[in-house]
Amino acid sequence: METENVFREANESIAAKARELRMEPPIPFLCECSDRRCFARIPLTIDEYDEARAGPQRYLTSSGHQVEGASVIAQGERFALAEKR
Questions:
Q1: What's this model's pTM, rounded to 2 decimal places?
Q2: Which of 22, 28, 29, 56 is 20 to 30 A removed from 80 (C-alpha atoms)?
Q3: How many CA atoms lie within 13 A of 73 on its CB side?
Q4: Whether residue 26 has a cis bond before it, omega within 30° of 0
């Protein structure tokens, strides 16, 4: 399994647990870049996370981090979105 998919699955678990526990934001999501040594955290609300997940091939990364085979489709101060085509 590709590194970014491992981190993406971990983030899905984080989001599910945050919803279950009604955690207050910001919630520390993991960077989903291709670098398996990256452990950057991205503080988001659940709504921000859900918006990032709107596309099935989107990956949430720290700004400047790369996802192999993907293009950056949005970039802000706290995070970027990459999408595989």
A1: 0.91
A2: 22
A3: 15
A4: yes
